[in-house]
Specification:
By secondary structure, this protein is mainly α. 77% of the residues lie in helices and 0% in strands.
Length: 253
Amino acid sequence: MQTLYDTLLIFRYQMRLSLRNPVWVVIGLSSPLLYLALFGPLLTGVARSPGFPAGDAWQVFVPGLIVQLAMFGSGFVGFAIIAELRMGVIERMRVTPVSRMALLLGRVMRDVVVLLVQSVLLILAAIAFGLRAPWLGVLLGLCFVPLLALSMASLSYTAGLLTRDEDAFAPLVSMVSVPLMLLSGILLPMSLAPEWLYILAHANPFLYIVEAMRSVFLGEYVTWTVFAGAAAAVLLAVLSVAFGTRTFRRQNM
């Protein structure tokens, strides 16, 4: 119970900081919106290619953009904890009785809320571009967003805590995020890839999440693809939070 109270305490503090400067919510959307406007229309012709999933091109592209938003939006939140380490904020929290797990989860909860807001805004923009998907599928797709935020934000804070330096943190996150993005089929479905690349991509958990979100956007809810994606998202979130909590405790902040 004390951990829950501490988590809500940290969450409220972090949300107040975010609400003081809400422009960053929109700035975080700039890259996905550019992909939506400048890359999305190119898929109209590609959608007629052999191997492209059935359905509208936007139903295939938008779920991938949501995962990309999570990977790069939540994936770089570790910069904040590096700044807090430098300013002594973490040092002051260290001497309080606040749970070390709450110090992580309170921040991650804030990132979950931010990513959900950004994802909804992205979907609304995609509707203006031509996205047509069942509302149930959209809602089920949004259920993956908190799990993605939990995973990426937990790992990002952990990396920030371990590196403690922006010059080391930025290339580390980029080195991990870019291959994961390319092998998850975010921009183009991996069904279009050559066999060796297709096989390699299946070692990437984000591939299963992207394909599951595309399935629900296409109105396919009870399929092996959806179950596999949900399992991958839950497992990744659990492992990420466990690893992050262990690191926070061992580092003793």
